[in-house]
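Researcher: I'd like a candidate sequence for this fold, 257 residues long. If you have to choose between options at a position, lean toward the conservative one.
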């Protein structure tokens, strides 16, 4: 076992479920494999957990991100919920919905996370797109295909300058671009404007309409076997998946959340 500079162990035992499987053979030769463990209860909406922990542990850090200086930028559960609700109102004000979705082009980050949660909070579909489609591609064919299939009403890229070349090629006229830091030439809405939107009762009304069958997001395949394909993820799928991971890796339930 290795130790840290302070002498504390860096490796410790964790609880992981055994990989036992129940096997069933059908007469036509089909074989079914399933876990012997029943899936536990899970919430209706993934964002229910945000509301729960904003009440239970409002001052606990929920999101953290390194800044360029190496310092940590953090967001508590309570702050996250408040900011998510402001952003959610901005999305509703723009008429975003299941039919008018969001594309997120930049990678993981606090603003990405807050926007994704806001979309799920009020039932707006979003699709997180691998940054490589914008930053490493030569002809933007895959990115253009994603735009054609999603028909977004709003596009988010945290670093506007980094994504400007790709956006200049594929961003349709009339589609709002939101950035955390602005591009050099393209017009964009500051992310802070979304967070400054006053909250109305429409946020809770929209949230109440979100159920397990509501589409939360669309994940695109890598396209390694052809063109990228969008895979629908419902609220129920995301919530069940979280409980499945805790069932397979019980140590996740041992950690302070």
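Model: Candidate sequence:
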């Amino acid at each position: 076992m290795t130790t840290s500079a302070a002498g504390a162990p860096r490796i410790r035992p964790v609880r992981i479920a055994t990989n036992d499987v129940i096997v069933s053979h059908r007469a036509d030769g089909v074989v079914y494999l399933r876990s012997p463990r029943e899936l536990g209860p899970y919430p209706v909406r993934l964002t229910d957990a945000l509301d729960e922990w904003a009440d239970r542990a409002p001052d606990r850090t929920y999101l953290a991100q390194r800044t360029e200086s190496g310092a940590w930028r953090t967001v508590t559960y309570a702050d996250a919920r408040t900011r998510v609700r402001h952003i959610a109102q901005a999305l509703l004000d723009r008429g975003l919905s299941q039919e008018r979705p969001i594309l997120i082009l930049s990678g993981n980050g606090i603003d990405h996370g807050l926007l994704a949660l806001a979309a799920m909070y009020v039932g707006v579909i979003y699709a997180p797109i691998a940054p490589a489609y914008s930053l490493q591609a030569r002809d933007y064919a895959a990115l253009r295909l994603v735009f054609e299939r999603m028909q977004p009403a709003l596009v988010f890229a945290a670093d506007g300058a980094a994504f400007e070349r790709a956006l200049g090629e594929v961003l349709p006229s009339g589609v709002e671009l939101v950035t955390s830091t602005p591009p050099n030439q393209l017009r964009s809405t500051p992310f802070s404007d979304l967070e400054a939107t006053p909250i109305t009762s429409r946020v809770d009304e929209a949230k109440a309409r979100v159920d397990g069958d509501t589409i939360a997001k669309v994940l695109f395949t890598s396209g390694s076997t052809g063109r990228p394909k969008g895979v629908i993820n419902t609220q129920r799928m995301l919530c069940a998946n979280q409980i499945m991971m805790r069932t397979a890796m019980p140590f996740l339930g041992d950690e302070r959340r």
